[in-house]
Amino acid sequence: MDFQTTVTLMLFAAALVGGSLWGTRRKVKRLGDVSYVPWNGLMFLGILVFCVLAAHLVTLMTGVPLKGNIR
Fold it and tell me: Residues 41, 44, 48, 54: is their CA dihedral positive or negative?
């Protein structure tokens, strides 16, 4: 994946997080109404994708792949 694709996907992930944040803060019409969209799950997914793409962006910019805690 190149730089432009990574940044574009990061923007989509940020928009997903922003939209799900808006969805969680909306007022319910009546007490006990349940939302059909799992806003918290979508927010978690957006944050996860954003973090993975941020690590990939660091790899693209520095040329050194990020490594985990390998013993």
Answer: positive
